[in-house]
Structure formats: structure tokens, C-alpha cells
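Is this the right way to post C-alpha cells for a design question? Let me know if I should format differently. Anyway, here goes:
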């Protein structure tokens, strides 16, 4: 009886084991499906996450780089990249603009420009703009004639500075003395070389008006506008002697001309002079009539008082031939240079 009960218990245990085995396989199958579904979900999530990432070309003050981001706006993108914008920095597109894949974000940084004017230099931040607009934006006023470098239409770039030179004009008047002229008046009552003042001169005065250009207070140019005589000068009058005289021995001779001439000598030929007179020693001389007219009274240094009465074939130009009584006297005279005075 006991044996029978044991057999029945063993059968029922075996039967339970057979019934439990399929349920264990079903649990394993459900776990595998669950893992596969989980992997698929992670994959889909990862793909969706990857699809939201954008590539953006960032140009910051000329430096170019490519950045991956999931920002939706330009402003979010800048904040994610810890990029700060200065007071006058400009970003394009604007910060509130949407950000697309393959977008380009450009940051133009403001730069310093130094302005030198009115003896001081100040720096201002600016974006590229004309010098005219830059000065107006920073309340730098310009006068009508001021010089500006670079030119007002020039577009400023990084590293450039602006210089403003203040240009002013002022009229000036200067008084100058007018030196009196000296007038010479011939006076036949006085010998050559003699002179005397008949009237003392007196300086006059003139006013010169000029336009002076000042650059930053320093004169750089002067233009004469007018000259006006305020006081007329009084001329100085001087009498100048015109009488020409020579003193030889105890006699004084007045002459009209003096010539330096080469003097030779000649003696009797048996012929009369070209004037038709008989030659006289110490008196008759031969000349070139084109230089000294025949009949002129002369005084020849070393020979004495004489008259131009004769001519000669070799006597041309500043030549003179002196008459002597003998050949020996002619030889003694030879040829020499003398002063010949044509007497009045």
C-alpha cells in the first residue's frame, strides 16, 4: 500500500515537471523579443537624435571654422559656443533668426580707430564706414576749411586712424618803409667825379595786407592780398659833375672824350698833311678820321697839345701817329700806349 502511494506521488511529480517545461521556454522567448524591441527603440532614438544635429560654418572676425550644433536659433548657437558680442559687434543672421543645417554665421567685430584733433587723441569703436559717417557718429565736428586724413569718402578698415587738422585764416597788415630813390642830375659846372646833394631824400611808407593760413594754430602759408602806399617817399637829388678837365703843367684842358691809343711816330715826307697844311713837330698828328675827326684839338700824354691834321694807311682804329722833326726823335719815341684826350 505504501509502495503504491509512493509510485503515485512520483508519477504526479513527473507530470508536473512535464507541464512546467513549456512555460519556461515561453519566458525566454518573451525576454528576447523585449530586448530586440528595446534595441530598435534605442536605434530609432539615436537616429532621430543624430538627425537633429546641424553643421554650421562660423566666421568670427575673419576666422573660419565648422561647428556641429543642435541649436535652433543663432542666439542659442552663440551661447552654446560661449561667444560674446561686443557693443558694436554685428552678427548675421540676427540672433533671433532660425538656424538651419549648412548655415553660415558671420560675426563682424568692431575695431578701434584713433582720432587726433584739437591737440588730443581719442579712440572709438566702429564698424567699416566712411570717415564722414564715423566722425558724425562720434560727434567730431568739422570746420569749413579743416583737413581730414583719410578723405571723408574713404571707408575705414582695421588698423587705420583719422587725423583732423584745424585750418583757420587771418588777415594781417604790415607797414614797410619805402626807400627813396636817388636822382642824379648832370651839372656841367662841376668836374667829372664831383657831386653834391641838392635835396635830401625821405623814406615813405606802405601797408601790406596778407592772408595767413594757420594749421592747428601754426602759420603754414602767407598770401599777399594788396599793397597800399600810405606815405609817398621824397627822392634824393644829387648833382653830378660832367665837365671833364685835365691839368698839365700850369694849364687846364677841358675834354669831351679820352681814348687809350697805340702811338707811333713819323717825320718829314715832303708832302703836306691830309688837311693841306705843312706838318709841325709837337703839333701835327695823324689819326683814323672814323675815330677822331680831322681838325680835332687833342692833348696826347707825353707829346702835348696837338691837332688831328693828317692820316696814314697804317693808322686805323685806336692808332695815332705823332710828327717829329727827325728820324732819331721818331726812334726815341718808338711805339707806346698813351692817353689821348679829345678837347672841347
Amino acid at each position: 500500500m505504501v509502495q503504491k502511494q509512493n509510485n503515485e506521488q512520483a508519477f504526479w511529480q513527473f507530470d508536473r515537471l512535464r507541464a512546467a517545461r513549456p512555460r519556461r521556454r515561453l519566458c525566454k522567448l518573451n525576454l528576447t523579443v523585449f530586448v530586440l524591441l528595446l534595441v530598435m527603440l534605442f536605434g530609432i532614438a539615436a537616429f532621430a537624435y543624430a538627425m537633429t544635429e546641424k553643421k554650421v560654418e562660423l566666421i568670427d572676425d575673419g576666422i573660419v571654422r565648422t561647428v556641429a550644433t543642435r541649436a535652433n536659433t543663432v542666439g542659442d548657437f552663440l551661447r552654446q559656443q560661449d561667444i560674446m558680442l561686443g557693443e558694436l559687434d554685428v552678427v548675421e543672421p540676427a540672433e533671433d533668426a532660425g538656424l538651419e543645417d549648412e548655415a553660415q554665421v558671420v560675426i563682424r567685430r568692431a575695431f578701434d580707430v584713433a582720432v587726433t584733433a584739437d591737440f588730443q587723441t581719442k579712440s572709438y569703436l566702429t564698424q567699416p564706414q566712411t570717415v564722414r559717417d564715423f566722425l558724425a557718429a562720434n560727434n567730431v565736428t568739422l570746420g569749413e576749411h579743416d583737413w581730414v586724413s583719410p578723405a571723408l569718402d574713404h571707408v575705414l578698415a582695421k588698423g587705420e586712424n583719422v587725423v583732423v587738422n584745424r585750418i583757420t585764416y587771418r588777415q594781417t597788415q604790415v607797414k614797410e618803409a619805402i626807400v627813396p630813390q636817388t636822382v642824379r642830375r648832370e651839372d656841367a659846372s662841376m668836374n667829372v667825379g664831383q657831386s653834391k646833394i641838392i635835396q635830401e631824400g625821405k623814406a615813405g611808407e606802405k601797408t601790406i595786407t596778407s592772408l595767413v593760413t594757420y594749421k592747428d594754430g601754426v602759420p603754414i602759408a602767407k598770401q599777399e592780398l594788396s599793397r597800399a602806399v600810405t606815405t609817398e617817399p621824397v627822392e634824393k637829388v644829387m648833382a653830378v659833375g660832367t665837365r671833364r678837365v685835365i691839368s698839365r703843367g700850369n694849364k687846364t684842358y677841358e675834354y669831351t672824350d679820352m681814348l687809350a691809343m697805340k702811338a707811333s711816330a713819323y717825320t718829314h715826307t715832303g708832302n703836306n698833311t691830309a688837311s693841306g697844311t705843312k706838318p709841325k713837330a709837337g703839333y701835327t698828328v695823324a689819326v683814323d678820321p672814323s675815330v677822331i675827326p680831322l681838325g680835332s684839338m687833342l692833348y696826347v700824354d707825353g707829346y702835348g697839345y696837338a691837332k688831328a691834321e693828317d692820316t696814314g694807311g697804317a693808322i686805323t682804329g685806336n692808332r695815332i701817329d705823332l710828327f717829329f722833326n727827325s728820324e732819331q726823335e721818331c726812334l726815341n719815341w718808338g711805339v707806346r700806349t698813351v692817353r689821348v684826350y679829345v678837347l672841347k
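Format looks fine. Someone answered above. Worth noting: Residues 167 and 215 are 5 Å apart (CA to CA). Confidence is low (pLDDT under 50) at residues 45-51.
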